[in-house]
Amino acid sequence: MQKVMGFLRMLGEAPKGDGNNRLSVKLRNGSRIVGLPGTEATVRGFSAVSLVVVDEATRVREEMFVAMRPMLAVSKGGVVAAINAGGQSGYFWDQWTFGGDGEGVRAGVSVRVQ
Q1: Which class for 26: exposed (0-12), middle (13-18), buried (19 or more C-beta within 10 A)?
Q2: Fewer Cβ atoms within 10 Å of its own Cβ: the N or the C terminal residue of the chain?
Q3: What is the DSSP string of 67-104?
């Protein structure tokens, strides 16, 4: 969230909290950005999510990706997963590389690896 706030300031925005979440910012167009710790319990209950950005995705546990599915399926939201070349392990890597059982990262959400 510190990086997000810095980028917003560079764009001339005056970041303000959304009033609901400690690590959040509400933008002039009504959008909001919420920073969450990487546990499945912290993402449950969010709805109408249009984009999830997962940093260090190879380090995120399977339970987190499973917990994200319902909020993305309803809104037809997407996932942007940031990984590094040295992070070729974990649930995300396995699903992306080997395809999984149809319930993996590719199922029901759009994933762009950069």
Answers
A1: middle
A2: C
A3: HHHHHHHHHT-EEEE---TT---HHHHHHHHH-TTSSS
Of 33, 96, 34, nearest to 62 (Cα)? 96
Q: CA-CA distance, 4 to 13, in Å (whole number)?
A: 11
Predicted model pTM: 0.69
What is the C-alpha to C-alpha distance for residues 33 and 24, in angstroms, rounded to an integer? 5
Largest interatomic CA distance in the chain: 45
Mean pLDDT of 78-82: 81
The residue ranges of every structural domain in the chain are 1-35, 38-114
Q: What gap in Å lies between CA 104 and CA 25, rounded to an integer?
A: 30
What percent of the chain is helix, strand and coil (3-state, nearest 5)? 35, 15, 50
